[in-house]
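Researcher: Going back to the complex we discussed earlier. I've cleaned up the inputs and rechecked each line, so this should be the final set. Can you rerun the prediction on the complete assembly and write out the structure?
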Amino acid sequence: MNGAESLVHTLLASGVDTCFANPGTSEMHFVAALDRVPGMRCVLGLFEGVVTGAADGYGRMAGRPAATLLHCGPGLANGLSNLHNARRAGVPIVNCVGDQATYHRPLDAPLTADSEGWARGVSAWVRTSRRASEVGADAAVAVQAARAGHGRIATMILPSDTCWDEGGVVAAALPVPPAPAVAPSSVETIARVLRSGEPAVLLLGNAALRATAVADAQRIAAATGARVSAQMFNTRIERGRGRHSVARIPYVIELATKALAGVKHAILVGATPPVGFFAYPDKPSTLLPPEAQVHVLSRPDQDSAAALAALAETLGAGRLAPPAHETFAPATGAISSEAFGRSLAALLPEGAIIADESITFGRALFPMTHGAAPHDWLQVMGGSIGGGMPLATGAAIGAPGRRVVNLEADGSAMYTLQALWTQARERLDVTTVVLANRKYAILLGELANVGANPGRTALDMLDIGRPDLDFVRLAQGMGVEAARAETMEAFNDLFAQANRRPGPFLIELATD
Amino acid sequence: MNGAESLVHTLLASGVDTCFANPGTSEMHFVAALDRVPGMRCVLGLFEGVVTGAADGYGRMAGRPAATLLHCGPGLANGLSNLHNARRAGVPIVNCVGDQATYHRPLDAPLTADSEGWARGVSAWVRTSRRASEVGADAAVAVQAARAGHGRIATMILPSDTCWDEGGVVAAALPVPPAPAVAPSSVETIARVLRSGEPAVLLLGNAALRATAVADAQRIAAATGARVSAQMFNTRIERGRGRHSVARIPYVIELATKALAGVKHAILVGATPPVGFFAYPDKPSTLLPPEAQVHVLSRPDQDSAAALAALAETLGAGRLAPPAHETFAPATGAISSEAFGRSLAALLPEGAIIADESITFGRALFPMTHGAAPHDWLQVMGGSIGGGMPLATGAAIGAPGRRVVNLEADGSAMYTLQALWTQARERLDVTTVVLANRKYAILLGELANVGANPGRTALDMLDIGRPDLDFVRLAQGMGVEAARAETMEAFNDLFAQANRRPGPFLIELATD
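Model: Rerun complete. Updated structure for the full complex:
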């Protein structure tokens, strides 16, 4: 058995059975091993950002790591920004990077690069395998490292000779410790804070945003008068009809500080302290009032759901009736963010997964869909543009049978558009809605935020409508059927049709 | 004056007047400064790999650095692989990366990443500016660092407050030392080696591949019996009708070792010792015979052209008559690599710039175009796929008035396809020929090279024809006119037309 075969066997034994790949020469033995070892689903991406972003989406929905397969340092580099997003999302990924043979690396052939150095910024664990006999053991540790905490990126760098040499040894799966429990004393402390009656907010992140946990947070709020809010960006929120809803901290600094005004106690439940996405001249960097005290019920890697349940019991918080949400009929007429939100709320299929990279146009969508059919809402967590389409791709593979709806701003869509081809190839049930306003609208706002008065050159840098992007042709060019909607009626028809049929479909929604 | 304004003024004062950009919020003051300070040409890319690859192409043709403008660590990450290519090409780039404000960075907002760490692997010089008053001085040093040697990447990281704070100071341009001369004693040493009459090869790289230098190398060869070869990959070769030609070391190991068989003396002229692009089981890593002695006439950063001229004089090598190259008529009938080579040789416009990422299908093209109209030939130097289309884009901006012909394999085209939009927006004179064989043909060869016998899963990973990519629609979707050629006659017509009219055009050439 060669090293590559021991790698595939070990990954399978450790529960990793999906591999997103963009292989090159140094990975050919891994590819050959996939033939000889059955059981690994391989999904090809035409660009590494698709591969790593899909592994993010897969991990969020499947709850276990996929493997990647990337080609040398530069292939890793192309995947880094979506690994950054996955790291921020706390998603487990076993990130496999092929590399020059151990004895070839010192010769500094053109593709040679500092793979370890580049991997470190996104990885909780990095190891370069030294010989074929150690690849299996390295892989088992990598899976364990990826599954530790609430999910991390473990990067294995595989010199090609460690893959082709004989002497591979399959390693058994290593135990993965469960999420650490929150100590009863911490629950007691938080209960005391809440009983004080002083203005408090429960800030939810990560596992605290599953439906049951949100319901527990809301009954705590009802019993104590505390507010509840999700973080600004979140890995996965279970929500929709019949589920208790939760607002998010707004992106815009003024709205965020307003939402948190008067708070005396911020209680973190799987969340981190809220800070501005960026700094701006003469605006605060942190979003809580200066006098607010920060308390931790649970860290992001802890069992936040159990902690909330225990806190609710400690407080004697009663169960709440299922919430009644505002419902909408599909919108007609002119296209607007609000109209789109109505139609989305009305037409979203049951069990949908929303991959949200809708940026400026999309800010109205989350608040309007509390009463949509039950669904999961995924955000691009690290703020690196281009995560949305790969995220949708991987989510569809991680949760087969559920419709994925990708809300994608046009500027963002152009970063990792190649994901559409993988959707077509794998016949994934993804409906992409490109919100085509033909500008970097968020940056026009940001330019105003920094106090600049834009002239011609600046406006040129923020205008992507010269020439216009035609997303229908772009999608068709990658084998995905597509159509453009210029009225809400047209959108409603296309959206309903797209969600009923198998496979991917793209709708270009003409917005302002 | 704020820091951003001092940056733009200093770049202009140092001779940097072109900026390839994909800005974000943290760069809004730079963007605003571009309005207030006239003279900087800004070129927008929809993805950072376009930005950095275009800076590579620009630097190669303009002979001086462009600036980039990237958004935080993840934006830098998206540009790394083409920076890797540019580093290997010895191209000067002033790589500007915006970042979180100095006081905001410790809060670890989502986009925060290890920008310095990621930059180091591609940069000869990295500096994070500390305050607005230092940005100008930092920029002047960055330009100097970029222009040192034969061209390097200097990365400036600009926290947003160093851009928006007042107190910017414009810095004067710093001197750039000329390429170090080769000592006369080194020329004498090499002359003695060549006079020995033992089998020798002059290995040319970098500045040794301009037309005059190649002519000097060939007259040295004629006088001494030495062979002449260019490196496997080269930044820029001046060639074509009336110019002396030079072969390159082949990519395939067996062909490379055969080409260098019997060599007793390898004389490096701006080149590095030849090594395999990859290692393979039971094949050599280095390409020279084990008994060959390696001599250095000039390092890549030295004045190789002057060294060759001095060596030719020392050896008393006579001037050669202009060479007579084989010429071709445009090919007719079925499409093949050889037929394409004939048509390219026949139809290439005078003064063209070829950006070559033609991979497997393209291997016949270089040898067949020695007698084409005079042109420059640029290769993707670091081996990171996806450099070709951005390279073509930047070359067109760095050498206005010349036609750029981008020979692009279909698999490679899908990495950084967004470059087409920039070509349309800037109305660049680029003819792209996508060689559409609908597979990763090079990897099928590599799979055989590593001794693997591919099965269904492996073949699936190397097949990009399910679904077929339609490059005509993809180009049209980004505003570039395009057509598909299924015969050589159709190609000849399209190619001639495309090269005659201003602006970009894409031809999808149906190949096997």
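Model: Worth noting: Chain A has a mean pLDDT of 96.
Researcher: Good, that matches what I expected from the previous run.
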